[in-house]
Every structure is written in C-alpha cells, then in structure tokens.
C-alpha cells in the first residue's frame, strides 16, 4: 500500500496568520505544506456576511496603524489586493450620553464627567499597580447611573482593554482605515492565498488546504 504523501510543514488554521505563514514558506521554496482549517472557509476572525443586501464585516473591520515610521504589512497587502478603504477621521467624532428617558446629557457635562472619570480611573490604576504585590484590593464599585454605565463602557471596555503602548500605533502610525469593500476584508486573504495556492474563478481548489479539518493533537516537528 502506498504511504500517504508527507508534508514538511503543517499549518494549523487558515486565518490571516496561517495564510501568511503559507505564503512566506512558499516564497522561500517550501511548497509541500498542508493547511488544516477547522471551519469551512479561510479567514478566521476576518469574515463578512450579507445583511439586508449589503456586505457587513463580522470580525475585523479596520486596518489600524498607518502613516508611521514603519510600513504596516497589512496595509501593504490591502494596497496590493486593491482593497477599498476609507480614512477614519475621528477628529469630529462625538459621543452622546443619554439618560434612561432618552434625554441627551449636555455635551459639556458629559465631557467634563468623562474627563474626571478617565483621570480618576488612571489614578486608581496607577495606585493599584503600585500597591498590588501581596495586598488584598477592594474591587472597584460597579457603575450604577446611565452616565457611569456609558463611561464605564467607553473607558474600560472600549478604550482601556489594551495595554499601552500599543506597538501597532507606535511602529506603524496613528491612522486607521475602515475597510469599505463589498468583497470584504477577507478579499485580502484570497489575494494572498492566490500567490501560493491553486485557485480558479475565485475559489481555492488546492488540495493542500484542508477545510473542515480540526487539528486536535500535538504535532512533533522534526527539523533535519
Ligand atoms: C469582532 C472583531 C473585530 C475585530 N476588529 C479588528 C479590526 O478592526 N482590525 C484588526 O486589525 N483586527 C481586528 N480584530 C482582530 C483580528 O480579526 C484578528 O487579530 C485576526 O483576524 C487574527 O488572525 P489569526 O489568523 O491569528 O487568527 P484567527 O483569525 O482566529 O484564525 C485562526 C483559524 O484557525 C482555525 N483553527 C483554530 N483551531 C484549530 C484547530 N485545532 N485545527 C484547525 N483549525 C483551527 C480557526 O477556525 C480559524 O480559522 C477583530 C476581531 C474580532 C473578533
């Protein structure tokens, strides 16, 4: 009986990491790879769906980190694949805060409260960090009023759920571009895959890509 064909490299997952790993390997002459993907598509957390007749992104929607000292590889890929993007100009962005009756808080009050809450949270974080070792810390009280809820959402869930400094912005720049392309952010993945996998009419037909294949055990890699 013929032994099954062997591959030098197994890539687990066909998200942007897996697909770009495959591309880099192929560019360096390693073609006998296999990509195992648990789902029925490539893209992972980059995916779109149809909503009310238009294409909407369910996962990644922005290319963050553009215009800095180093060139962002995702931005380069987007340019190469002709992905349509538009600059996200936050300079005029404004958040409205409403009370439970739907009445808008005057922007001055909201901005003032927001600034106070941000300053306070930063001070609290700094002192928490300073005193953390070995001490029992009282958990912060949960937000109660609408304005506290809104501030808590923006401050903790939206703004501070990342550690500073964020290397994407430091290395690649502060600008962000929204992907505004009917083909979806995932178009970039397909263009990247085209470089090393066999495709026809926009479909990947290369048998080195194994969809619906969950890798559930550890793989030992032998390097000669
Ligand atoms: C809602 C949302 C919004 C986001 N917004 C942005 C944004 O605006 N800008 C941005 O840059 N990033 C954003 N991100 C993050 C970005 O999508 C991810 O960082 C990126 O897609 C991760 O790519 P990845 O290839 O590393 O992992 P994934 O995309 O998670 O791909 C991993 C793949 O591996 C497969 N897999 C996992 N385990 C196995 C297994 N055992 N065997 C086989 N296959 C397996 C999975 O099915 C998946 O396809 C967002 C993410 C989400 C969820």
TrEMBL record:
Tell me which Pfam families the record gives: Amino_oxidase
The entry assigns this protein to a family as follows:
Belongs to the flavin monoamine oxidase family.
Question: Example GO biological process term?
Answer: polyamine catabolic process
PANTHER family (alphabetical):
FLAVIN MONOAMINE OXIDASE, POLYAMINE OXIDASE 1
Q: Which protein is depicted? A: Amine oxidase domain-containing protein
Report the coiled-coil segments: none
Which InterPro entries does the annotation name?
Amino_oxidase, FAD/NAD-bd_sf, Flavin_monoamine_oxidase
Question: Amine oxidase domain location, by residue?
Answer: 16-107
């Amino acid at each position: 009986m013929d032994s099954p064909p062997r591959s030098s490299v197994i890539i687990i997952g066909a998200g942007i990491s897996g697909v770009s790993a495959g591309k880099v390997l192929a560019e360096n002459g390693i073609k006998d790879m296999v990509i195992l993907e648990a789902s029925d598509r490539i893209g992972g957390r980059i995916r779109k769906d149809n909503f009310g007749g238009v294409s909407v992104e369910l996962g990644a929607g922005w290319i963050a980190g553009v215009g800095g000292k180093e060139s962002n590889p995702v931005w380069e890929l987007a340019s190469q694949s002709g992905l349509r993007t538009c600059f996200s100009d936050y300079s005029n962005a404004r958040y409205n805060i409403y009370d439970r009756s739907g009445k808008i808080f005057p922007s001055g009050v909201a901005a003032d409260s927001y600034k106070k809450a941000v300053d306070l949270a930063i001070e609290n974080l700094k002192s928490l960090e300073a005193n953390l070792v070995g001490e029992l810390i009282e958990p912060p009280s949960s937000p109660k009023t609408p304005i506290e809820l809104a501030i808590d959402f923006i401050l903790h869930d939206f703004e501070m759920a990342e550690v500073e400094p964020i290397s994407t912005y430091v290395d690649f720049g502060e600008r962000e571009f929204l992907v505004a392309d009917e083909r979806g952010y995932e178009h970039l993945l397909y263009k990247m895959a085209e470089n090393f996998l066999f495709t026809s009419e926009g479909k990947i037909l290369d048998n080195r890509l194994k969809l619906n294949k969950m890798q559930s055990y550890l793989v030992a890699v032998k390097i000669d």
